[in-house]
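chain below, 130 aa
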Amino acid sequence: MTIWTDVINYVRIRYEVLEESEHWLRFRLDTDGGRSQQVTVHHLPDLDGAEWAEISSAVGWADKIDLRRLLELAGGSSVGGAAVVDGVALIKHTVPLKSLHLREEFERPLLSVVAQADAFEKELSTGDEF
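prediction:
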């Protein structure tokens, strides 16, 4: 659980935390052009006992965007994939927490997921809701 605690502390120091529990936290990052992007990181224990962190960022309400276009955009990405959870279209990426170097193995994918989600949200919706 030590690396998960490190992830939580890393996020708390750098970003505006909006909500958190023992196994996840939601926070906001500023992006280009005065936009911002919400991100959620979940702590996921694997079946074999390995720990993982799932990074997700919303693109828009699934019923208000072109999901086919989202899949096409996500298909060209090297980090993350598209999903719909509770009616929200997301870009998601998972990183192992075994021996995580926070700057390289957490923040780089985090920033990539956020940039993609924001760009996709900008292309697929009319606002900056997430």
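The domain at 2-124 is CATH 3.30.1460.10 (Yope Regulator; Chain: A,). The chain has a mean pLDDT of 88.
thats it, cya
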